[in-house]
Design goal:
heterodimer, A: 323 residues, MetI-like fold, 14 helices, B: alpha/beta, Rossmann fold, eight-stranded mixed sheet, four-stranded antiparallel sheet, globular
Chain lengths: 323, 320
């Protein structure tokens, strides 16, 4: 097991190096930091001095190496736009995005799986048809529209839930802020989490349904029935567990997607997370933030893939013994 | 009173092009502790009969007529929940392919204990002890260590042993064994049949042994039912059916089995093929292939008639 994790992490190194290279190339090919720092009026001597000070006269690979070295120490440079260290900037935004993404995923999983099991077992009931039709809406409705609709209904018309922001957050330790500590902040979380999670929920539901239809035809399900096991145990134990491997894969990849690309939801709800930061940084061509973001997201995906692989091992004994 | 009494059971499949009658007035009974063999070609309705008895017909198939009684109690009209309690506890079932009948994600111990604990109040420790006992009885070596293994860690023959343990562990009075050896290696088949025979004899369990292997029936069963196109063609003691088949189909079936004692240059076969359910002939379903066909066979369908020691659905025995 330990060897497996170690080998997976080793495999992740080339991935991160390639992404790191792209992130570094952003500096070299998009915009000119010297021009940006010096502005319009400067002498050639000032320019050369800055170039030397920034190390831009060094060979390409030396610069790349220094970039990697700094990145490993958590130093991603200074944001052009905000004039703050990028690392601290991202660290400040990360908890907001992660809490939103986790809430949305848990919601999607907790509702999508039972709905998928139900529609898989009771294929032709009215409720199943309603779920299936509703899921089409969920899959095809664009996130921004859904967010705006939810705001319209629950914030503007009904006035039940706040329409933007994260509410009062509580600091935990040096880096983490949480919105789970107060009801006011949890209320802020509800609408964005639904907006972000609805698509995943419908996806999970449809996937679980399709897998259930497949698994319920299997011989071991017939044998379980022939032994008189209860429906509950067959449907939610024997059958559901056998649908989990593909479901875990999709949920894992989707979670990565949620963390990386929650920008639409975060923009609609002015959620102070990384997505909002990304949108603002793109608009301002804030290269240090963009390149650090790229690296961070690559790291997130690597970790999620590792987690998914470990979950396979937990679920399927055939994989465990093959090693 | 017989343990299982199947009377005039008819199974139908509604399809877009009309209702297909897959079983037509099948009647037979099984006594406690008896082994009844059921033979026939693929599609004759052997497995369907088994599925109807244990209440696991696949939709849209349904029992359209007749009745099934277990110890005198009607079980074909039971609701889902009482029927579930009968399955495993009073009627067990063994399937054909041991590679696919065990849940790959659960240890065999868990599958055994869950089955026993579903039907009986048993503490976890007792259930585990009994599960080890069952694995031991079906011949899994080092049962106490192997109980926590997963199905993929066993060979095909061992898995079928586990399947047998699972089918027997709640101590049903009747086992429906649907081709229990067909998917196994020839060298393992005999062991599994012997095991099944010994265990059911020790427990007094009756077996409905579905197979297309007459050799297995001859060695194992007391009586045999021969099925053809959804009906029972002949039923009777194995020795009589083999030596003096009363139905021309049974006779043809026996003649097509190779024998070591009488070497023949070419095995005999029954001309033609079993009719499809949507194109059944009038009268006796076997008449287009029957060498002894006469006028009545084309018009009227025979029920089981007494024919010496056996009973056969054939007009040749109309006066017997």
């Amino acid at each position: 097991m330990f060897g497996f994790i170690a080998s997976r992490l080793l495999q992740a190194i080339p991935v991160l190096l390639v992404v790191g290279f792209i992130a570094f190339a952003l500096f070299a090919y998009v915009g000119d930091p010297v021009n940006m720092l010096l502005g319009q009026d400067h002498t050639e001597a000032q320019r050369l001095a800055l170039v030397r000070q920034l190390g831009l006269d060094q060979p390409f690979f030396v610069q790349y190496g220094r970039f990697l070295c700094a990145a490993l120490h958590g130093d991603f440079g200074i944001s052009y736009r905000l004039a703050q260290p990028v690392g601290a900037l991202l660290a400040e935004r990360l908890p907001a995005t992660l809490e939103l993404a986790v809430t949305a995923s848990v919601l999607a999983f907790a509702i999508g799986v039972p709905m998928g099991v139900y529609t898989g077992i009771h294929r032709d009931t009215l409720v199943s048809r309603l779920f299936m039709t509703g899921s089409l809406v969920g899959v095809s409705l664009p996130t921004f529209l859904l967010g705006i609709l939810l705001i319209l209904v629950f914030s503007v018309w009904l006035g039940w839930l706040p329409s933007f922001g994260r509410g009062p957050v509580v600091h935990i330790g040096r880096w983490w802020t949480t919105g789970f500590a107060s009801w006011a902040a949890i209320r802020c979380l509800i609408l964005p989490a639904i907006t972000l999670g609805l698509f995943q929920m419908t996806l999970i539901m449809r996937l679980v349904r399709a897998e259930m239809l497949e698994v319920l035809r299997a011989d071991y399900i017939k044998f379980a029935r022939a032994r008189g096991l209860t429906r509950r145990s067959i449907d939610f134990g024997h059958a559901l567990k056998n649908t989990l491997v593909p479901v875990i894969t999709i949920i894992g990849l989707q979670f990565g997607g949620i963390v990386a690309f929650s920008l639409v939801t975060e923009t609609v709800f002015q959620w102070p997370g990384m997505g909002l930061l990304l949108v603002q940084s793109v608009a301002a061509a804030d290269i240090p933030v963009l390149s650090a973001y790229l690296l961070l997201i690559a790291l997130v995906f690597v970790l999620i893939n590792l987690a998914v692989d470990l979950l396979y091992y937990a679920v399927d004994p055939r994989l465990r013994s093959r090693r | 009173m017989p343990l299982l009494d199947v009377r005039d059971v008819t199974v139908e499949f509604p399809t877009r092009r009309g209702v297909l009658r897959a079983l037509d007035k099948v009647s037979f009974s099984i006594e406690s502790g008896e082994i009844l063999g059921v033979v026939g070609e693929s599609g004759a309705g052997k497995s369907l009969t088994g599925a109807a008895i244990i209440g696991l017909l696949e939709r849209p198939g349904r029992i359209a007529g007749g009745e099934i009684r277990l110890n005198g109690e009607r079980i074909d009209t039971l609701a889902a929940e009482p029927l579930r309690r009968i399955r495993g506890r009073r009627i067990g079932m063994i399937f054909q392919d041991p590679l696919t009948t065990l849940n790959p994600l659960y240890t065999i111990g868990r599958q055994l204990t869950e089955t026993m604990q579903t039907h009986d109040r048993l503490s976890d420790a007792d259930a585990r002890r009994k599960a080890i006992g069952w694995l031991d009885r079906v011949g899994i070596p080092a049962a106490a260590q192997r109980i926590d293994a997963y199905p993929h860690e066993f060979s095909g023959g061992q898995r079928q042993r586990v399947v047998i343990a699972l089918a027997l562990c709640a101590e049903p009075a009747l086992i429906v064994a649907d081709e229990p050896t067909t998917a196994l290696d020839v060298s393992v088949q005999a062991q599994i049949i012997t095991l099944l025979k010994d265990l059911t004899r020790d427990q007094g369990t009756a077996v409905m042994l579905i197979t297309h292997d007459m050799g297995v029936i001859a060695e194992t069963a007391g009586r045999v039912a021969v099925m053809y196109a959804g009906r029972i063609a002949e039923i009777g003691p194995v020795a009589d059916v083999i030596r003096h088949p009363a139905h021309p189909y049974t006779a043809g079936l026996m003649a097509s089995i190779p024998s070591l004692e009488h070497r023949v240059p070419r095995l005999r076969q029954i001309d033609g093929a079993m009719p499809r359910l949507d194109a059944l002939p009038t009268g006796c379903r076997f008449h287009p292939r029957c060498p002894k066909v006469f006028a009545r066979c084309r018009d009227e369908q025979p029920d089981l008639l007494t024919a010496g020691a056996t009973r056969a659905a054939c007009w040749l025995h109309a006066d017997g």
